[in-house]
Design brief:
Elements (H helix, E strand, L loop, with lengths): L1 E11 L6 E7 L3 E7 L5 E11 L3 E7 L5 E9 L2 E4 L2
Antiparallel strand pairs: 1-2, 1-4, 2-5, 3-4, 5-6, 6-7
Length: 83
């Protein structure tokens, strides 16, 4: 059973280390991407069909190049944080 999730990819227009992206640890089907960019950032919201219990990592890198990885699991209610 696949669950539809929306995930964001973004980075700044000016040279910077800031960015957000995701990594799906398993198979998925990308249905579409919506461009929600503005003059300061390039941003896409992706709609994916992902199997239940698949792990998704959301990676955020700040202006100081510090990386934060948040792990989620796909459930019938959507994404929930992993412990």
């Amino acid at each position: 059973m696949n669950i539809r999730v929306k995930l964001k990819r973004s980075w700044t227009v000016i040279p910077s280390r800031e960015r957000i992206y995701y990594r799906v640890l398993g198979t998925y089907h990308k249905l579409c991407e919506q461009d929600v960019s503005n003059e300061w950032a390039v941003c896409y919201v992706d709609s994916l069909d992902v199997p239940l219990k698949t792990r998704v990592d959301v990676i955020e890198i700040d202006i100081n190049a510090v990386k934060k990885i948040s792990q989620y699991e796909v459930t019938s209610e959507g994404l929930i944080p992993c412990h």
